[in-house]
Amino acid sequence: MSTHTEVVKPAHCSDEEWALRVQLAECYHLVDFFGWTETIFNHISARLPGPGNYYLVNPFGLNYTEVTPANLLKVDLDGNKVEPSPYDANPAGFALHSAIHGARDDIHCVIHTHTNPVSAVAQKKAGFSHDNFYGAQLFGRVGYHAFEGITLFADEKTRMLGSLGDKHILVLRNHGVAVGEQDIAKTFFLLWTVQRAAEIQCHAGMIPGEDTPLEDAIGQKCADLTQMLIRDSGFATKFFDAMVRKMHAARGALW
């Protein structure tokens, strides 16, 4: 939990940037609250407005609950800090996050996780099923990238972007998933949908008997309706804010 001084906006920080920092810190806390963290690893990044091609990311070594608006790192597309900080960033995040932020103007937030259900689906050759309620909403939105080892090297960026194409979900084979959307709230809702799809797929796989398949046309309809819902209304923001309230109520304190 942050101290009072940590939530006071620094004089050099614009109101727009500070609002983004506050929301991104809340997103880190939500991912921890839902149990989707991988100790101090993985990243959630948010692109900053303006011409600098800068984005915010977590300081390496902190738990997600220790991330605050003030200690988020501002870095460029090469992972260099553009403002002083006693913290460093995890270089494993730069190849993935900087590649997407540098190439996709329609993606302003990227979340990478490898929860048990997501990693299990990523290991399966067939990938995500679109035969459950949540999986159907992902129809036509998933790209797959072959595992090349720990994501550290810049030469993999082009191949990852090719695997992602114009989609918003990138399954990293034998590893995990990265999702990206127009803003933090939409990205969090997409991650939640991916996580639920993976959970149900894993549970369905434990039950004997055949699954009931859905036609591709139904999957496309579900995906289109979900996109219309989150892009043309305040649905994702309402969902995000409700989850933040739920988290704060459960933990009994704000920052």
UniProtKB/TrEMBL annotation:
One of the record's GO molecular function terms: actin filament binding
Source organism, top-level taxon: Bacteria
Class II aldolase/adducin N-terminal domain: residues covered: 22-202
GO cellular component: cytoskeleton
NCBIfam families: PRK07044.1 (NF005451)
Alphabetical list of PANTHER family matching this protein: ADDUCIN (PTHR10672), PROTEIN HU-LI TAI SHAO (PTHR10672:SF3)
Family under the similarity heading: Belongs to the aldolase class II family.
Protein known as: Class II aldolase
Organism: Parazoarcus communis
Lineage of origin: Bacteria, Pseudomonadati, Pseudomonadota, Betaproteobacteria, Rhodocyclales
